[in-house]
Amino acid sequence: MADKKKIAFLVAAEGIERVELTEPWKAVSEAGHQPVLLSPETGEVQTFDHLTAAEKKPVDQTVGDVSVDDFAALVLPGGVANPDALRTDETAASFVKAFVDSGKPVAAICHAPWTLIEADVVRGKTVTSWPSLRTDLRNAGANWVDETVATDANLITSRNPDDLPAFTKTLLGAIG
């Protein structure tokens, strides 16, 4: 087995699409790595199954208390409210920008590329997302494609929960 690596999962306090957090988390854990739940605030975060509240998850660390150097990769789960809240948090957006700038893998699914837009890291990149983000991503300078997974340099993006198998496989390949 490869060396155990810490993988950051960054989410807001609520609005996280549960399966977009739990499936990559499970894959990272089963691959022998250590997933770490980051959020702007301490306490618990609320996941959702679409618009229905699901389970709560405990925050491991706040994003303001960690460094990009602490992690081998960053995962940004979707859900509509989650990335919308993250993109208004300066510390979270700065962390995402620093992570992308580091060259380490950054994987965003569904609505999560909204946070990538706020971090100003999609210009000139080929990405995918939930279809309603297409115009936002193009306006931010990205080349939006309708594909299961789009990989451009260290950015890995997928459209929706149906893409999770390919998304997690690509993420694990990038982690090594």
What is the gist of this entry?
The strands form three sheets. The protein has a seven-stranded mixed β-sheet, with helices on both faces. The chain has a three-stranded mixed β-sheet with strand order 2-4-5. With 176 residues, the chain is of the alpha/beta class. It is 32% helix and 28% strand.
The CATH class designation is Alpha Beta
Point out poorly predicted stretches.
none
- If strands are numbered along the chain, what order do they take across the biggest sheet? 6-3-1-7-8-12-11
The rounded distance between the terminal residues' Cα atoms is 10 Å
Task: List the secondary-structure elements in sequence, H or E.
Answer: EEHEEEEEHHEHEHEEEH
Please tally the helical runs, counting DSSP H or I stretches of 4 or more residues: 6
Mean pLDDT comes to 97
